[in-house]
From TrEMBL:
ABC transporter domain: residues covered: 6-233
PROSITE patterns documented for this protein: ABC_TRANSPORTER_1, ABC_TRANSPORTER_2
Entry GO MF terms: ATP binding
Protein name: ABC transporter ATP-binding protein
Keywords recorded for this protein, A-Z: ATP-binding, Nucleotide-binding, Transport
Amino acid sequence: MSNYAIETVGLNFNFGQQTIVKDLSLQVPKGSIYGFLGPNGAGKTTTIKILLNLLKSPADQVFVFGKEINNNRIAILKRVGALVEQPAIYGHLTGRENLINRCILLGIKKTKADEMLALAGLTEAANKKASKYSLGMKQRLGIAQALISDPELLLLDEPTNGLDPNGIIEVRNLMIDLATKHGKTILVSSHLLAEIERTATHVGIINKGQLLFQGTIEELHLLSKPLLEIEVNNIENASALIAKTGYEIIAQTDKKITVPFTSSQKSGELNTLLVQNGFTVSSLYQQKKDLENLFLDITKTN
Ligand SMILES: Nc1ncnc2c1ncn2[C@@H]1O[C@H](COP(=O)(O)OP(=O)(O)OP(=O)(O)O)[C@@H](O)[C@H]1O
C-alpha cells in the first residue's frame, strides 16, 4: 500500500508544442496539507487538472491512492473533492439549497448538506442567498460542495485568491480543521509563500513546470534561513561590534544591518548589546522571505 495519496512519476505534459509540466515527481503523503507553490503560470492548475483526469496524462505517470489514474478514473474520482477556479455556486439559491442540489446530483442523502454547512462554519448563513455571501463564505461553500461526497483527498486551486484577510483566515482554518480533525489529505496551490507556510505540513515548489523543492515545512525552513534586519545609528561601528560577537553580517546599507535570525532571545540579546554600547536601535525586524528570495536560496543550494 502506498503511503502517498498522490504520486506522480516523471510526469510530462504539453499543450501543443509548449511543455507545461516537465519530469514532475510529486509525493503527497496521506493526511498532509501539501502546499503546491509556484508563481503564476508555473503549471499548478494544469497539474491539478491532470490529477483530476480533466487533462489526460501519459500512462503510468500519475497515481492517486496508489492506482494509475487513467485506468481507475471513476474509482479514484469518487474519493476526491476539488475546487478549481471559481466555485460553481448559484447566487439565487441559499447556501443550503446549493448543497442540497449537489446531494441530489450525486445521489447523496440531503442531511449531508447540513453536516457540510456546519463543517464549513456556514450553519448560521445556511438560509441566506449565496449572492449575499462574502467572498470568503462563497469559497467555504465551494469547499463544502467539494466535501459533500466525503472525499479523502481535496484538491484546492488557489482557494484564498482574491479574499480579504478575514476570508483568508477562514479558509486557512477550515483547511487545518479538515486535515487535523477529519483526516483529509489536502493539496492546496498558491503563489504566496507566506500563505502556504501558515497551513502546509509539506511543500512542493514548481517553476516552469519543474519541481525545485519538495519536503516538509521544516525542511523548507532549514533551506530558507530567516533574516534579522537591524536599523541602527552609527552603522559602521555597530556592524564592527556585531561582527566581533561572532555574528555573520549578511548585508549592510547606510541604515540597516542584516544578520541571520536564530531566535527571538538572540535578537533581544543583540538589541541589549547595541543599546548597552551606546547605539540607538530604531527597529529589529525579522524579514519574511517571498517566493522570489526562496527561489534564489534553492538555486544557490542546488
Ligand atoms: N488550455 C490551454 N492551452 C494552452 N496553454 C495553456 C492552457 N492552459 C494553460 N496553459 C498554459 O500553461 C502554462 C501553465 O498554466 P497554469 O494555469 O497551469 O499555471 P498556474 O501555475 O496554475 O498559474 P496561475 O496561477 O496563473 O493559474 C501557462 O503558460 C498557460 O498559459
